Amino acid sequence: MANLKKLSAKKFFPMLSDRQERFNNAKADLKPVSDQATVIAKALHPKRQYLKIAEIKERGADCKSFTLVPDTEKGTTALAWFGAGKYLTVFETIEGMPVTRGYSISSSPKESLEGKYVLTIKLVEGGLMSQYIFDNWAVGTSVEVSAPAGNFEYQPLRDANKVICLAGGSGITPFISMAKAICDGDEDFQMTLLYGSRSYDNILFKEELDELSKNDKIKVVHVLSSDDNAPEGTEKGFITADLIKKYAPENEEYSVFLCGPQQMYEFVDKELEKLNLPKKYIRHEMFGEFHNPQTQADYPAGIPETVKIKVTIQDKTYTVEGKSTDSVVQILEKNGIAAPTRCRSGECGFCHSHLISGKIYVPKHLEYRRLADYKFDCFHPCCSFPLTDLEINVPVAK
Amino acid sequence: MTFGDVMKDIKPEDYKKFKTKVAKDMIETCEKALNISITPYIEEIEIALPPTFCRYLNTPEGTPYGYMLEKWDSMIPRTVQYLQDQPFDNFYFCGASQERGDGYGCAYYTGEKAGGLVVKAIKKEGK
């Protein structure tokens, strides 16, 4: 009590004048923060990377590899390093629509330090972005992309050291990057790649795979679905449970990584069930934007063809109209409204938004909402399809 | 890790391996100290090191707790001079890194305080 009586507010007064004096004398030019943690964060996660196309390699009639280098005139002087398996989101404006798509990087992490990314893109029939890219991307074209993103990576604390990689068609791209990373010493695991193609002549990256499989840690098996003249050493048919078992290690744990088209996942996931692997050992790369929700068995009947969406982004509100079979993000984009997107598969959470009113449909395999999302009416516009008119709040596109 | 020099020689391209090693060491230390097995049960893992906090919170040197207060600029002088610190009329500071230093609780408090002052100013203007 005696000590409390000694306390006096007067003791604080000099502190106030000292503070004011320090403020008055402070320099306006703050020193930029340059500690190593900040340097690493900025180098690995730039908001945007401005690139130029340096080279285009044709891979058959409907697939091309684009080599991208920094566009120094636009401010990108070095490329962000990445863990093998990641993708880049490409930003384009197509007929006034802001459009984004993610494409796996097929070059190695090491090559990014040498100033080079490679994106290998297959032309999708009726695909908006791939058609635009095939029509417009030429050597010298400027391309705007995100930092490398995604979770389709080998993680030694979680995954088994032996990994059976299952690829279909252009789903080979992240595995090319992983195989190169193994050769460069950036990754350390035993890779057995079962690569499904239609025929021997259809195999993408054939020469590169032959070269990569010289490494003791990499084994490549081509699985050809419709080639009667397949050479020795290849497998005929589809990637089945029996085939996986044939190449999997005996009495040892192994992980399975999958990347390919939706139809491949539907088939292979059923095969994998037969193997009773722990769930943590099965990892899928996202296959990008989902179309035609009305083909799903659980899609409700009697949904109107068109819907209205009232969307608020920061302090602006728009009311737009679109097809109920388009995702919410597609409807916004088709009306010239940019929404924040990365994976376009519901996984990354970048487009996480608020559903104020209305009903949506989310395909089961793209359901990444958490309990808190249900409780607070949050959803992912990139993989949600409107069943009624909606009112939503969407964050600003970054 | 934030204020030591353990990060100083880590290059961006070494960071992935480095953070996995840090996590591995921590998990193994826990397994040993508690005499339990953790590693085989890891189903998902996200590792946050100082660059993670730089990336998401933009805090100096990646500290998860934000800026450290100095005595001359601590809570009491900040509270006393709160209105004096306004750069112009009808502008009120709130959020983390404010009057009471960093943290959720401080952000809530200053948000409520700033909101109250705004409402008070609006009412005064309306009279």
Characterize the structure shown.
Chain A has 11 helices and 19 strands. Chain A has 3 domains: 45-145, Translation factors (Elongation Factor Tu (Ef-tu), domain 3, Beta Barrel); 162-284, Nucleotide-binding domain of ferredoxin-NADP reductase (FNR) module (Rossmann fold, 3-Layer(aba) Sandwich), CATH 3.40.50; 293-393, Beta-grasp domain (Ubiquitin-like (UB roll)). Chain A has helices at 2-6, 13-25, 36-44, 109-113, 128-136, 173-184, 206-212, 241-247, 262-273, 328-334, 371-375; strands spanning 49-58, 63-70, 87-94, 97-104, 117-122, 142-145, 162-168, 190-197, 218-224, 235-236, 255-259, 282-284, 306-313, 316-323, 353-357, 360-361, 378-379, 385-386, 390-393. Chain A is globular. With 127 residues, chain B is mainly α. Chain B folds into 2 domains: 12-62, no CATH class; 71-126. Chain B is built from 4 helices and no strands. The relative contact order of chain B is 0.09. The A-B interface holds A 12, 15-16, 18-20, 22, 33, 35-45, 80-81, 83, 109, 113, 155-158, 279-280 and B 2, 7-13, 15-16, 20, 23-24, 27, 39, 42-45, 49-55, 60-62, 71-73, 76-77, 80-81, 84.
